[in-house]
Each structure stands twice: as structure tokens, then as C-alpha cells.
Amino acid sequence: MKYKLLALGTLKASSEKQLLDHYLGRLTLDFGVQELISKKHHTKEEEGALILSHLSSNDYVIGLDEKGVDLSTRSFFELLENKSNQTKVCTFIIGGADGLSEAVKKRCQMLICFGKMTWPHMLVRALLVEQLYRCQQIKNNHPYHRD
After folding, report:
1. Is 12 exposed, middle or buried (0-12, 13-18, 19+ CB in 10 A)?
2. Using CA atoms, how far apart are residues 8 and 121, in angstroms rounded to an integer?
3. Which of 38, 57, 92, 145 has the most CB atoms lying inside 10 A of its own CB?
4. pTM given for the model
5. pLDDT tens-digit map of 1-37
6. How far apart are CA 35 and CA 4, in angstroms?
7. Do residues 111 and 8 lie in contact, with contact meaning Cβ atoms separated by under 8 Å?
8. pLDDT tens digits along 2-12
9. Residue 4 · residue 33 · CB < 8 Å
10. Would you tell me how many other CB atoms lie within 10 Å of the CB of residue 97?
């Protein structure tokens, strides 16, 4: 299965970018990041329309949202393994500072969160890729992940 991330905003040189690049370098999954540029005066609905315009009708879409399901790494791995038999592309969406529009949430087959704490949306990119790397290692029976 191919994985992609649609994210609003550009990740500039920073510690978050270094962390993201570190895990991207370790990832052997077919994974790509597409940054969507939103103007500061865009509303959440306009950002949502921009996101939706970059989705294929066949994508399995997972939105990252503070009200999403809080999965364990093992559950996340099992979800992705299950979907790998049902779809060719799994797209993750990270919205802007105001979150995802209702239209984007409705398009998502699932909403997940990384705990109940609030994370900077640029850091969430690195958290997602680290979890994908961890899932990759679980699949390969590598001891990186320990239950």
C-alpha cells in the first residue's frame, strides 16, 4: 500500500523538520508528503476545499484530529494491515492551526489523535512518520517496537 500525507503549511528548517527527516530516512514504506499552501486569510472551509481537491475517490483517508480515536501503536498497525488488503492508497490529513473542516472530517473514513494533549501541527508530522516507522518494524518482527 502507498501512504501519503497531505498537510497544510510548509515545514521550514527546524528541530521538527530534522526529526521528520530522520524518520523519513528510516522509512522503507512507499510514503510521500504533500504540503498544501494556504493563505493566512483562508477560512477553515476554504482550507478544507483545498484538501479535498487533492484526494482521490479511492483513497482511504485518515484525518488527524484532537477528537479522533486514540489508538495504541499495535492497534494502528493492525488498522493499516487490514486496510492494506482493501485499498491501494492511505492518505493522512493534518489541517492547519484551526483543525479540519467538517467537509474534510466527513470525507475521512477515520479520525485519529495522538493522545488528549494538544500538539503543534508541524510536530504531528514527525509523530505520524515515527509511528509509521514503528509499524514497519512491527511488520518486520524487529525489536524496535516493544509491547
Report:
1. exposed
2. 9
3. 92
4. 0.93
5. 999 999 998 888 899 999 999 999 999 999 999 999 8
6. 11
7. no
8. 999 999 988 88
9. yes
10. 11
CA 129 to chain centre: 8
Residue 96 is classified by DSSP as: B
Is 31 within 8 Å of 6 (Cβ atoms)?
Answer: no
Beta bridge partners of 93: 6, 63
Q: With beta carbons less than 8 A apart as the criterion, state whether 133 and 27 touch.
A: yes
Q: What span, in angstroms and rounded, lies between the C-alpha atoms of 46 and 38? A: 9
Q: Is 126 in contact with 18 (CB distance < 8 Å)?
A: no
- Domains of the chain are 2-139 (3.40.1280.10)
Give the tens place of pLDDT for each residue, 108-136. 999 999 998 988 888 999 999 999 999 99
DSSP string spanning 40-79? TT--HHHHHHHHHTT--TT-EEEEEEEEEEE--HHHHHHH
- The answer to whether the beta carbons of residues 83 and 90 sit under 8 Å apart is yes
**Inter-axis angle of helices 121-139 and 15-26, to 10 degrees?**
20
